[in-house]
Amino acid sequence: MTNVTQNLLKIRRRIQQTCDSCGRDPAEVHLLAVSKKHPAAAIRVAFEAGQKAFAENFVQEALGKQRQLQNLAIEWHFIGHIQSNKTREIATCFDWVHSIDRLKVAKKLSAHRPPEQTDLDVCLQVALADESGKSGVQPDRLADLASQVAALPRLRLRGLMCIPPASREPPRQRHWFARLASLRNELSQLGLGLDTLSMGMSNDLEAAIAEGSTLVRLGTAVFGPRPSGIDPAT
Ligand SMILES: *Cc1c(COP(=O)(O)O)cnc(C)c1O
Question: Could you tell me the pTM of the whole model?
Answer without folding.
Answer: 0.95
